[in-house]
Specification:
Elements lengths: L8 H4 L9 E5 L10 H9 L2 E4 L16 E4 L11 H13 L4 E5 L9 H11 L3 E4 L4 H7 L14 E5 L13 H7 L2 E5 L5 H10 L7 E6 L7 E6 L3 H7 L6 E5 L6 H4 L1 H5 L23
Parallel strand pairs: 1-4, 1-5, 2-3, 2-4, 6-7
Antiparallel strand pairs: 7-10, 8-9, 8-10
The site of S-adenosyl-L-homocysteine (SAH) has 25 residues, from helix 5, strand 8 and strand 10.
Length: 289
């Protein structure tokens, strides 16, 4: 690409980025194609881009020349910058009259601390805008051929984080309630405590044979998908050397992958049109949920 915004007519109709503003944008799970037009429009106009570790670097190719690109994530084993410092940085740039794009992985409001940063801007009187993104728990699973909801499987879904601020399995999560009430459970940051979490769900009544899908580096070149079961997932993840970032999905929807693994199909996988074995049983004429 040549770096000229004029070559992208769609963006000429998009909002102008005023100086002194912060746009807090989601970048999606990695594949630059999952950026929204608003995020792209922000990237093209920003004077400063403050981005996190999970933003794929090729996304930064869209930044206008001369803009400051400021990395706010964890680097080389060093502790990540304090949330307060990042918020102060955004405030300083905005007060210096910059157009500040704060780019976060996935969606800023899904386990992304976007709310904390935005409230810091509110407190400082900095005008801001929120640009939602494709969250890894939905878009990342879609890249693995797993649909977060499917009429034959679930009418509800729970998103949860596998560790709290202190890094422990979150106490605030009602594991028993979720095990009993949520047919599909989509977990962020769950790899470290996977064994404990799977144990809690099994204690809560879930079957050891329940399907589990683990998607690492979803939508990126290094995407890896492991299909396993609740009883075996921690063992299998270790054996396969799976590393974060990963989304863990528990539920029957994981079986859809046999039919919906569109990326696998690109590599020659033959897809099963009836992955759940329900063909004919489902009411074809009913409104879809
Ligand atoms: N705001 C982000 C989530 C940030 S928390 C979003 O909406 O997606 C970070 C966690 O997100 C990771 O530990 C992992 O669980 C998940 N995640 C983010 N990007 C991912 C990717 N490309 N593949 C798999 N998991 C990802």
């Amino acid at each position: 690409m040549d770096g000229s915004q004029d070559t992208w007519p769609a963006l000429t109709q998009m909002p102008r980025f005023d100086t002194g503003w912060v746009w807090l944008a989601g970048a999606g799970p990695g594949d630059p194609g999952l950026l929204t037009l608003h995020a792209l429009n922000g990237l093209r106009q920003a004077d400063v881009v403050v981005y996190d570790a999970l933003v794929d670097n090729s996304i930064l190719d869209w930044v206008k020349s001369g803009a400051i690109v400021d990395y706010a994530g964890k680097r080389g084993g060093k502790p990540s910058p304090k949330q307060r410092d990042i918020t102060l940085k955004l405030i300083d740039y905005a007060r210096a009259g910059k157009r500040v794009l704060r780019l976060k992985g996935g969606d800023p409001f899904v386990f992304g601390r976007g709310g904390e940063e935005a409230l810091g801007l509110v407190a400082a009187g900095i005008p801001f805008k929120i640009i939602p993104g494709v969250t890894a728990g939905i878009g990342g699973l879609a890249y693995a051929g797993i649909s977060a909801t499917h009429r034959d499987c679930n009418q509800a879904v729970t998103f949860l984080t596998g560790h709290d601020q202190s890094g422990l399995t979150p106490d605030a999560v009602n594991w028993d309630g979720i095990a009993k009430g949520s047919p599909v459970i989509i977990m962020y940051m769950a790899m470290k405590h996977l064994e404990t979490i799977a144990g809690k769900l099994i204690t809560g009544g879930r079957s050891v044979d329940e399907p589990v899908g683990i998607v690492c580096n979803a939508s990126l070149a290094g995407q890896e998908v492991l299909e396993t079961t609740l009883g075996r997932c921690a063992f299998d993840a270790r054996a396969a050397n799976l590393e974060p970032p990963a989304i863990v999905c528990v539920g029957e929807v994981v079986r859809l992958r046999a039919g919906l693994d569109w990326m696998g199909a690109l590599a020659g996988r033959v897809l099963d049109p009836d992955p759940l074995g329900v063909r004919g049983a489902a009411d074809e004429t009913a409104e879809s949920a």
